Amino acid sequence: MILLFNELRKHGKLAAKRHPMYDKNKFGKYMMYFMSIFWACYMIFFGTTFAFAFESESMEPYHILNMGLIFILALDFVMRIPFQKTPTQEVKPYLLLPVKRNRVIDFLLIRSGLSSFNLIWLFMFVPFAVITVTRFYGISGVITYCLGIWVLMILNNYWYLLCRTLIGERIWWIALPILVYGGLAAAIFIPENSVIMDFFVDLGEGFIEGNILVFIALICLIAGMWLINRLVMSKLIYQEINKVEETKVNASEYKFFERYGEIGEYMRLELKMLLRNKTCKQSLRMIIIVTVAFSCILGFTEMYDGTGMRNFICVYNFAIFGVMFLLNIMGYEGNYIDGLMSRKESIYSLLRAKYTLYSVAILIPLVLMIPAIAMGKIALLTAISWAIFTIGFIYFCLFQLVVYNNKTTPLNMKIGSRQNMGTGLQNIISIVTFGVPLLLYTVLQLLFGEVTTSCILLVIGLAFIATSKWWIMNVYKRFMKRRYKSLEDFRNSRER
Question: What is the pTM of this model?
Answer without folding.
Answer: 0.60
